[in-house]
Amino acid sequence: MLRIAMQAKGRLNEESMALLKEIGIDIDDSKRKFLSSAANFPIEVLYMRDDDIPQVVANGTASLGIVGYNEVAEKGLPVEIVKELGFGACRISLAIPKNEEYNGPAWFNGKRIATSYPKILKDYLDKNGIKADIEVITGSVEIAPAAGIADAIFDIVSSGGTLVSNGLKEVEKVFFSQAVLISSGKLSEDEKNLLEEMLFRMESEKVSRGKKYILMNLPKASLEKAIQILPAMRSPTVMPLAAEGWCSLHSVVDSNDLWDKVRQLKAIGAEGILVLNVDKIIL
Ligand code: ATP
Ligand code: MG
Predict the structure, then answer these.
(1) CB of residue 71 inside a 6 A radius of ligand 1
(2) Is the pTM of this model over 0.70?
(3) 172 CB near ligand 1 (under 6 Å)
(4) Which CATH architecture has domain 90-177?
(5) What CATH class is the domain 211-277?
(6) Range list for CATH 3.30.70.120 in the chain
(7) Could you read off the pLDDT tens digit of each residue along the chain, which spans 283 residues?
């Protein structure tokens, strides 16, 4: 049985649940407490605050976790990054009052910086040879300068709207993050096999995304040209048709290229073109 720690509620919860669903794992979420299991896969979900996820994975309470890379880096606990998941993108930046003149990172020398990410900030300051005081605040960091708690902040930024409404400007983009799948690195053989199965399904999902199945009737004389237009996974499927001199050609195309391919295929005589959605591609 695999146990995976995920954010109970917040920015990563929905997409973490969607990720499991996408790879065919049905979590019974109806009577959700702190643990839910899946009906069709030996996995259970442990719901936590995101701050606690690196710890429960590092100490083996959960074998896997889904959490922002920012939390992993901040906690500095021994966990392995198994995969970047491509959602929950954000950055942690330094911001200062908008009327201050900024002349580079040296501006921060002797200043007080409020943050919930003291470790990531300290690493940055040390690397740049800056001596500043770090004020650790766990919430509403952006109000710190106006409240006189600090001269600057180091906080998560996505659109920058919160900064502007607090009279701040972003001056250094320091750390880039996204959601990651982490592991304790102490998985049993059984758990390793289950993780492999999950990764295999995620890969198939990625390959299938944005793909269309296309089939058409084609004059046999145009076959060579059509195969060049449609380089399929191995090669397109060609089937004979009852009508003399015609065949049926099947292939898979990237939906971004679909209309361009259709135009080229029509130009070489393709008829009756059918385009279907692809549910799964298993390579
Ligand atoms: P919890 O109650 O679980 O502790 P939280 O308030 O600490 O939740 P959220 O605001 O839900 O955390 O953010 C979770 C993660 O989402 C962040 O650690 C970060 O990796 C990612 N994230 C993506 N965009 C943003 C953003 N604009 N602001 C904050 N976090 C973001
Ligand atoms: Mg948190």
Answers:
(1) yes
(2) yes
(3) no
(4) 3-Layer(aba) Sandwich (3.40)
(5) alpha beta
(6) 211-277
(7) 999 999 999 999 999 999 999 999 999 877 667 999 999 999 999 999 999 999 999 999 999 999 999 999 999 999 999 999 999 999 999 999 999 999 999 999 999 999 999 999 999 999 999 999 999 999 899 999 999 999 999 999 978 888 999 999 999 999 999 999 999 999 999 999 999 999 999 999 888 888 999 999 999 999 999 999 997 767 789 999 999 999 999 999 999 999 999 999 999 999 999 999 998 888 7
Q: Which fold has domain 2-88+179-207?
A: D-Maltodextrin-Binding Protein; domain 2 (3.40.190)
Pairing of strands 237-240, 179-183: unpaired
The response to whether residue 11 sits with its C-beta less than 6 Å from ligand 1 reads: yes
48 CA: nearest ligand 1 atom:
3
